[in-house]
Design a protein that fits this description.
Two copies of one chain form a homodimer. Chain A has 480 residues and is an alpha+beta fold. Chain A has three domains: 211 residues, 2-Layer Sandwich (BirA Bifunctional Protein, domain 2), CATH 3.30.930.10; 101 residues, 3-Layer(aba) Sandwich (Rossmann fold), CATH 3.40.50.800; 70 residues, Translation Initiation Factor IF3. Helix content of chain A is 36%, strand content 26%. In chain A, the strands form five sheets. In chain A, strands 3-7-8-14-11-10-9-22-23-21-20 form an eleven-stranded mixed sheet. Chain A has a five-stranded mixed sheet with strand order 16-15-17-18-19, with helices on both faces. Chain A has a three-stranded antiparallel sheet with strand order 4-6-5. In chain A, strand 20, helix 13 and strand 21 form a beta-alpha-beta unit. Chain A is globular, with a radius of gyration of 25 Å. The two termini of chain A are 33 Å apart. At the A-B interface, strand 2, helix 2, strand 3, strand 4 and strand 5 of A face strand 2, helix 2, strand 3, strand 4 and strand 5 of B. Strand 5 of chain A pairs antiparallel with strand 5 of chain B, so a sheet runs across the interface.
């Protein structure tokens, strides 16, 4: 494989360059003509389709249905909730003209749809019978990025879903917030094999306009945290300005209680970072566009027919098992080139089959995640394949979990904190709850409170900054 | 049912108002805050999901994969193919600012993605090995509508798919154009129960930038034609300005041959118009969010338990058959109200079950499309239900086909043409092929050439305008 096709740096030496090369060379995405925007190529989009379909199924089971909202939001509407507007205004794209005509009330490209959705909800909801109302929107959000962009991790337009629910009571809404976060965690851990820590954001880091934000955070191999998804309790912060009211059974009007929540294609970025290696992408079987690739090996016309026939047979047997299998029939390429090509693309399982294998009634199985090769009897392929893929999926998660645990440490001393932060990782440190201490850490070290874990067992230690009694032990880390 | 909940005009008396009321009152869509834009409510979006999933399956079988393109296209790129730009420029939305900053090269909101897609394709395609390249994009297109807008039929933003393929030969590309149109016809006729006529557009009516456009046209009950989808042969009209080239087996560089094609949520609009009636929406079973609704009928506490138990049993049996079934448990509403409600929403099949039915071991089956009621033995429901739904689907198509045939007439005389046009319908009239004659008809009557059918058996008659020998017998109609 020529140098410009393969990855030319190692994951350890230049993580950022390694990441970009994997995204581009594995043909997941490419840069669009406008800076900060990307295009998804079929393999990249296919991974998104897998994530989407897994989430969508869970949403529907939860009684959540999908809807569609336009991409354009009038400035007058976007600015109705002041804090929310202040948060999104600096990065909004503005439409000012249609054809030759100037538009009076400027139109923002959806940075998020709370304002638009709730102006509609306010029309649709009349009585308690209309609640709960739970609608999800699969669309894109647009936020002009000023910081350096990175495919999937930070882009000016990104694929995501945003869910917006309305409830009669705060309790019901808060339960929904947690249910959704649980769905997210389940999908990220089971489909993408990435372990996450769930909990609350601090006041400073919460969604602009929310009462509080719950989050799931994962750790990247460079020691930085990646926010993988958030679920917000909005209280009545939006229902009041947007007039989202319902009449209860006694015919009394009440403001409703709301939630909003979302995950984006950033999940794909996290997956690339966590699992990829120096050979390229490594895909968890559950989301890989191709789960098994068959590479036939032959060097003579005579062998060609025999090997191809057998390879076709295996392909058919796997298709019958609903495995996403691909037989690499490209005649003009060597087996060696093909091996590297599919390794670069991260296909979890490769079946190599040559004339000598057929004589011995076996194939060679190469697993991408640990780069191991073993023999497998041909008549066992079909029966064992699902189990092998499940094993790969589990091993990938276990490996990532081990790394997360190794890089998670409890720290009580600020000097030690600063030392450890340089190595990267999740630093659990006691905190008094004061935003001044939180800001001091951020200013001096770049570390933020990523999450206050739900399972936080705060033991009334001393705040790592001010020494006052701690109220929680958040995870601090530098983040993306 | 109170007057403002049901439809207050008849389909015959005020077709336009009837249509709008059905869309809004059946809760498929609602007007967004910006004029010309709509929001899809869950029932409306669910129909789009059914169409999407049926099409997506067929696309994937054809080797077409999905991708993602950003919504913003720089003006410099959009204007590279001159005719194309001239066609879309007047209705483009322009982004001029991000946050406080003015953007140098204005960004258009995607009116269609040929220009953006092909600037990417040009980077991705190097050799014949990379072809054919077939990518589809599920997204929205934005075109500022100056004419009066109508939900689903004409909006400034609409959900659609746009497919873009690249081939080594013109022949292969032209075959693809037809394959896609065949897929479209299949889905529209089989899922939406709307008969269509396929063929070519005239030069005047083709897509700006195409060599030629194939189309499928359907007839609405008001006698106007609705274009349901188009598939374009682009030749090398885009590959040249966008440099979409490949090296062939002899290492010679060639410009590629291209196609593009799309259908939008307009299909939903057509479906509403064709099948709806004075009671509201009528949905074909294949795309209905709910296929069977069960309405339990009881007036005493004692009956309530008995009826609800049996209704639950039936619901379970239908769920086991993978039927989309809903049991209407709303206690506070009368059965009569519920009947009207589900009729308004167009649910194809209603099962009514009361204490007397249970005694006789039967239910009442009400079919929405013909408003007929029959008895069905309870123990037969589960076995017969799929067949009944198929029968409904077929009868809806047959009925629409009959109307299309009745309203399709062959005309050789221009005076007769103008008379018949007032009644509405598909007018087959001989045409010499001259654009002047086509324009004269358009100017004088408002009728356009909707399609020159593939099965056109032109018998060398006289052009209805100039009297010269005809080259084809197109379908003329007024259109949406």
């Amino acid at each position: 494989m020529s140098k410009d096709i393969g990855i030319t740096v190692t994951k350890n030496d230049d993580f950022s360059e390694w990441y970009t090369q994997v995204v581009l060379k594995a043909e997941l995405a490419d840069y669009a003509p406008v800076k900060g925007f990307i295009v998804l190529r079929p393999d990249g989009y296919s991974i998104w389709e897998s994530i989407k379909s897994a989430l969508d199924e869970k949403f529907k089971k939860e009684g959540i249905r999908n809807g569609f909202l336009p991409v354009l939001i009038p400035e007058s509407l976007l600015s109705k909730e002041k804090k929310h507007f202040a948060g999104f205004n600096p990065e909004a794209f503005w439409v000012t003209h249609s054809g030759e005509n100037e538009i009076g009330d400027r139109l923002a490209l959806r940075p998020t749809s709370e304002t638009l959705a709730y102006s509609m909800y306010s029309k649709w909801i009349k009585s308690w019978r209309d609640l709960p109302l739970k609608i999800n929107f699969w669309n894109t959000a647009l936020r002009a990025e000023i910081k350096a962009t990175k495919p999937f991790i930070r882009n000016s337009e990104f694929l995501w879903q945003e869910g917006h629910t309305v409830h009669t009571t705060a309790e019901e809404a808060e339960k929904e917030v947690l249910k959704i976060l649980e769905i997210y965690k389940n999908i990220v851990e089971n489909e993408l094999a990435i372990p996450v820590i769930t909990g609350r954001k601090s006041e400073k880091e919460k969604f602009v306009g929310a009462v509080y934000t719950t989050t799931m955070e994962s750790l990247m191999p460079d020691g930085k945290a990646l926010q993988m998804g958030t679920s917000h309790f909005l209280g009545q912060n939006f229902s009041k300005p947007f007039d989202v009211k319902y009449s209860d059974k006694d015919n009394v009007e009440n403001y409703a209680w709301q939630t909003s929540w979302g995950v984006s294609w950033r999940l794909i970025g996290g997956m690339i970072m966590v699992h990829g290696d120096n050979k390229g992408l490594v895909l968890p079987p559950k989301v890989s566009p191709i789960q098994v690739v068959i590479v036939p090996i032959y060097y003579s016309e005579n062998d060609s027919k025999k090997v191809t026939d057998k390879a076709n047979e295996i392909e058919k047997a796997l298709l019958d098992k609903k495995i996403r299998v691909h037989l690499d029939k490209r005649n003009e390429l060597t087996p060696g080139f093909k091996f590297h090509d599919w390794e670069l693309k991260g296909i979890p399982l490769r079946i190599e089959i040559g004339p000598k294998d057929i004589e011995k009634n076996k194939v060679v199985i190469a697993t991408r995640h640990n780069r191991e090769k073993t023999d497998l009897a041909i008549d066992k392929i079909s029966d064992n394949i699902i189990e092998i893929l499940q094993k790969i999926q589990k091993e990938m998660f276990d490996e990532a979990k081990k790394i997360l645990q190794d890089k998670s440490i409890r720290i009580e001393d600020y000097t030690k904190f600063k030392e450890e932060l340089e190595k990267g990782g999740f630093l659990y440190a006691p905190w008094c709850g004061d935003e001044n201490c939180e800001e001091k850490i951020k200013d001096e070290t770049g570390a933020e409170i990523r999450v206050i874990p739900f399972d936080d067992k705060n033991e009334k230690q001393k705040c790592i900054i001010c020494g006052n009694e701690s109220t929680s032990t958040p995870i601090f880390a530098r983040g993306y």
